[in-house]
Write a structure and sequence with these properties.
The chain has 344 residues and is an alpha/beta fold. The protein has two domains: 217 residues, Spore Coat Polysaccharide Biosynthesis Protein SpsA, Chain A (Alpha-Beta Complex), CATH 3.90.550.10; 107 residues. Helices cover 41% and strands 17% of the residues. Helix 9 runs antiparallel to helix 10 and helix 10 packs across helix 11.
Length: 344
């Protein structure tokens, strides 16, 4: 490692990604902004991932390679945060990659903003079977910028445009993270990214979103997001509840988050319905939370569609299951066998 203190840490958690991690590491090494450290935490892989990481670490002194027992992505990221010496950090998934100028772009933008600004860029999704055609860096022709206050931004938390439910695509200030003891919750396996970002937003001046595509997300055929329902997905409800009941929320923000929590819970149980994987304990857990959300209807306005879905789930769950199975079947037919999210 160069004695000069790095400015940006690229944090890469890795678990059984020997097929993909080359691209993530190479895209980090080839950054035009070179004042970096690359912290790769192998989370107990049992394939060739660790060997690949070690091979790259021997070639580039900026790479810090650490292997730990399998404790999850949150544990790996938290460990990397404690190790990082940089002023800023980005979180890069091991099967994704960044454009060669991504860090240069982010640093340039944040340095020209006020203290504690959070800068974010756009991303693109790449199908695994189309990689050969889409590996080149691309950017949109016309750059646009949106400046949003953290209070207003919380009203857009579920908006995929700003990707607030992901820790990727953003340049975080490590002083804010460490001083305020912001961590990824290791007992939450889904929704932990959004909870981390939610906590971080309380300490920023403004959020700056640039539409430049600087991040590449691999849509793996075997990815967790495309797998059948897993009860661990329900920890996303725990994450959403921690946001909803945060004492710092204004009434306006709490109203938005209440609707967000209802939609989140309904999406999850419908996902379980479509997979035919729901258990009695899963149903009881979601039922309890939906009922709790609706008990606040006297104080907050709930979206009518969400209210109807919630009541169907509480009193006629099999009817709700039937409706969405039919919708999903029509969706599959319309997409010629390609599934899509029908939970809206």
């Amino acid at each position: 490692m160069d004695n000069k203190k790095p400015l940006v840490a690229i944090i890469i958690p890795a678990y059984n990604v020997s097929k993909y991690i080359h691209r993530a590491i190479l895209s980090s090494i080839k950054q035009t902004f070179t004042q970096i450290e690359i912290i790769i935490i192998d989370d107990g892989s049992n394939d060739n991932t660790w060997q690949i990481i070690q091979d790259y670490a021997k070639k580039d002194s900026r790479i810090i390679a650490i292997k730990q027992n399998n404790c999850g992505v949150s544990s790996a990221r938290n460990k990397a945060i404690t190790i990082a010496r940089s002023e800023y950090c980005v979180f890069l998934d091991a099967d994704d990659w960044i454009n060669s100028d991504t860090l240069e772009f982010l640093v340039d933008k944040v340095k020209s903003r006020e203290k504690n600004a959070l800068v974010s860029v756009d991303k693109r999704f790449v199908e695994e079977n189309s990689l050969d055609e889409t590996l080149n860096d691309i950017s949109k022709s016309k750059e646009t910028l949106e400046k949003i206050s953290p209070q207003k931004l919380l009203h857009y938390f579920g908006n995929p445009k700003y990707s607030l439910k992901s820790a990727c695509f953003k340049l975080f200030k490590l002083e804010i993270i460490k001083t305020n003891k912001i961590k990824f919750r290791e007992n939450i396996s889904h929704g932990e990214d959004g909870l981390f970002v939610f906590e971080y937003l309380h300490y920023i001046s403004n959020f700056y979103y640039f539409n430049n595509i600087k991040w590449n997300i691999l849509k793996r055929r075997d990815s967790a997001s495309r797998s059948v329902f897993n009860p661990k997905f329900l920890t996303a409800i725990d994450a959403a509840n921690l946001m909803l009941y945060d004492k710092r929320n204004t009434q306006e923000i709490k109203q938005y988050l209440l609707n967000y929590c209802i939609k989140n819970a309904l999406d999850l149980i419908i996902y379980a319905f479509l997979s035919d994987k729901e258990t009695k304990s899963d149903y009881i857990f979601v039922h309890h939370n939906i009922k709790s959300y609706l008990s606040q209807i006297r104080f907050f306005k709930i979206n009518k569609k969400l209210l109807i879905k919630s009541l169907l789930f509480l009193f006629f769950p099999q009817t709700l299951k039937f409706i969405f199975k039919i919708r999903h079947s029509f969706s599959l037919g319309a997409k010629n066998g390609k599934s899509e999210n029908t939970f809206n």
